[in-house]
Amino acid sequence: MNSKADKYSIETVNESIYDHPKYYDLVFGADCAAEVKFILGCSDQYMQRPPKKFFEPACGTGRLLYALAKRGHNVAGLDLNPKAVDFCNARFDRHGVEAKAFVADMSDFRVPHRHDIAFNTINSFRHLQTEKAAREHLSCMGQAIRVGGLYLLGVHLTPTEVAPSETESWSARRGHLSINTHMWTKERKKGSRIERFGIQFDVHSPTKSFRIVDELVLRSYKPRQMDRLITSSGCWENVATYNFSYQLDDPIEVDAATEDVVYVLRRTRD
Ligand SMILES: C[S@@+](CC[C@H](N)C(=O)[O-])C[C@H]1O[C@@H](n2cnc3c(N)ncnc32)[C@H](O)[C@@H]1O
C-alpha cells in the first residue's frame, strides 16, 4: 500500500523489509566483518578440529554465508523468504560460489548431511512465535550439526531488572544509496511473550526517496526462559556467552540486566 500524507512527507510503502533484500543487505551488512571474525574465532576456541561446513538457518540475503564463502569455506543456508533466498543464490552465482540456499522454515527442515558449525546471529530465532516452534528449531538444528559442532545463537533478551531499550536508529550507505533505519517498540504486553516492533527504512538514492514501514512480531525471552529452553532441548549445552560486540576475549555472564547475548551452544550426544 502506498501513501503520501502531505506534499512534504516521504512516500511510504507498508511492506515486509525482508521483501527488499537489496536494502536489507545494506542495512544489516555493516557488521559482517566482526561477525565473521567471531564465528571463526569461536570455531578455534570451542571446537576440536577446524570446521569445514558452515550452516545458517534464516540466512536472509546470505551476507554472512557469502563472506565465509569468499574465504573458501563450504556454506549452506535456508530462509522462509523466497526473495531473500533468490538474492542470496544470485550473489553466489555471480561470484562462482558453489552453494545454494533453500526456502524452508527453520523449525521444520532437514539437511542431507551434517554441518560443523551454524550461526544465527541477529535475533532471527525470535521470529518463531511459540515454545513448540522454538523447541522444534533446536531439534532440527541438532540434526543439522554434528556432535561436538557449534550453534552460535544471537538473541536480544528482555532484561528483568532494568527497563528494556525501546528505540534504535542507524544509517548505512553504499555508493549513492543511503538508508536510515529506525526501530521502535509498538507493543509489549505484561504476561505476553509476543512483542511488536515498528521498523522503517528511509531509502535515498539519486533518483528517488521513499520509506518502507513494517512490523516485526517477535517472541520474547528472559534470561531464565532461554536457559530452560536450551537445557530442555536435550542436544545442546551452553559453553559460553558473549554480547553483540563479538569480543572473543571478553565473554559475559548473563544476568537480569543483560539484553544482547550470543549463546555458544555445543552439540552434545543425544
Ligand atoms: C533479521 S533477518 C536475519 C537474516 C540473516 N540471518 C542475517 O544475519 O542477515 C531475519 C530472517 O529470518 C527469516 N525468517 C523468519 N522466520 C523464519 C522461519 N520460520 N524460518 C526461516 N527463516 C525465517 C526472515 O525471512 C529473515 O530473512
Write a short abstract of this structure.
The protein is of the alpha/beta class.
Radius of gyration: 19 Å
How much of the sequence is in beta strands? 35-45%
Largest sheet: spatial strand order: 5-4-3-6-7-13-12
- By secondary-structure content and strand pairing, the structural class works out as alpha/beta
- Mean pLDDT, to the nearest integer, reads 94
The CATH architecture of the largest domain can be given as: 3-Layer(aba) Sandwich
Number of strands: 13
- Major pleated sheet: 7 strands, mixed
Number of helices: 6
Show unreliable segments.
none
Q: What's the helical proportion of residues?
A: 25-40%
CATH topology of the largest domain: Rossmann fold
The CATH H-level superfamily of the largest domain is Vaccinia Virus protein VP39
Bound molecules: S-adenosylmethionine
Count of domains: 2
- Overall 3D geometry? globular
Termini separation comes to: 49 Å
CATH class of the largest domain: Alpha Beta
The string of secondary-structure elements, in order, is EEHHEHEHEEHEEEEEHEE
Any overview of this molecule?
The protein is an alpha/beta fold and 270 residues long. It has two domains: 77 residues, S-adenosyl-L-methionine-dependent methyltransferases (N-terminal domain of TfIIb), CATH 2.20.25; 174 residues, Vaccinia Virus protein VP39 (Rossmann fold, 3-Layer(aba) Sandwich). Helix content is 25%, strand content 35%. A seven-stranded mixed beta sheet has the order 5-4-3-6-7-13-12, with helices on both faces. The termini are far apart.
